[in-house]
Amino acid sequence: MCDxxxxxxxxxxxIALLSLFSxxxxxxxxxxxxxxxxxxxxxxxxxxxxxxxxxxxxxEQGPExxxxxxxxxxxxxxxxxxxxSVSVAVALLQAAAGAPVTSTADSLRAIETLxxxxxxxxxxxVKSVHAASGTVDVGWNVPPDTRLIAELAAACNRKVRxxxxxxxxxxxxxxxxxxxxxxLTTGNAWYCVSFDLNRQALRSFRLDRITELTVTTFRAExxxxxxxxRYLQQNLTETPRWPVWARVRYLxxxxxxxxxxxxxxxxxxxxxxxxxxxxxGAEDWDALAGHLxxxxxxxxxxxxxxxxPEFSDALVRIGRRITSFGAP
Length: 328
Fold this sequence. Notes:
Elements: H1 10-23, E1 26-27, H2 29-36, H3 40-52, E2 57-60, E3 66-69, H4 82-98, H5 101-117, H6 120-132, E4 133-135, H7 146-158, E5 160-167, E6 173-185, E7 190-196, E8 201-206, E9 210-219, H8 228-237, E10 244-250, H9 254-257, E11 266-270, E12 276-282, H10 285-299, E13 303-307, H11 309-324
Parallel strand pairs: 4-6
Antiparallel strand pairs: 1-3, 2-3, 5-6, 5-9, 6-7, 7-8, 10-12, 10-13, 11-12
C-alpha cells in the first residue's frame, strides 16, 4: 500500500495509476484501491479524470473484470503534441536520474506507459531519446533543449555523423564533425559523448553549448571505443577541466566534508592526521575562494590553504570584502 499522505494528491494518484497500468494492463478496483491506499470510490473518480485527459481506460464487468488500459490502434494520449511528448520523456529521464530509487522506478514505468499510448509518429522520437540516453551521477542545473536531445538521439540510433558549432568553457567557438554515441544526463545537465573526427578521439559536449546542429546521412564507422558512461564519469570528476584549481585542508574528518564538495568541482581525501584535503576548481579565484570558505563557515571548522598562492590572495580579498560589510 502506498503512503496515505502522498496519495491524497490527485496528481500523485494519477501518476501512480499510470505506473501500475504499465506493470499490468488490467486491475480490479479493489486492487488499485489497496495499492494506492484509498477507497474504491476515489479510484473511480481518478479513472474518470484520466479518461477526460484522453487515456483509453475501459471497465470490464465480471469476476475477472476491472479497469483496462487499451493500447494500440488509433487511441493515444491526444493532450500532448509531438514536442510535448518528447519533453515528457526527457523530464522523466531527468527524474529517473536524480530521484530516489522508488521514484526512479515510477519514472521508468511511466516512460513505458507513454510508449504504449503515443502514435507511431511521436513514439519513434520518444523511443529514440530513451534508447540513446543514460544517466551519470554528478550534477548542476542546465535546462535541456528537448529538440536538440531528440535530434542527437536519433543520430545516435541511426549511427550517422553530425556537425555543429561548439562553445567551450573558455568561450572559444569551433566547428565539430562527430559521430555521436550516447546522450547522457547528470540529472541536471545533458552531454553528448561522441567520437570527434577532427581530433580522432572520444569527446563529451555539453548540449547547452551546441548550436547550428546538422544531422548528415554519412554513416558512422565501427570503432572500438571506451564505454561512454564511464568516459563521461571520469571526464567530469577526474579531469582538471576548470581554469583555476586549489588545494585546501579542513580540520575535520572526511565524512563531514565529502558531502559539501560536488564531484563535478573537486575531490576529497582523508589525511593521516584525520583531517580532509580537498582539490577543487572553479571559473576564477574569487569564486573558488568563496565556495571553499563557505564550507568552513557553514560547518564551523578551520580551513587551511595549501596551494597555490593565488588562492590565498583570493581568500584575503574575500575576507576584506566581508569585513567591509560591517563598516559604517
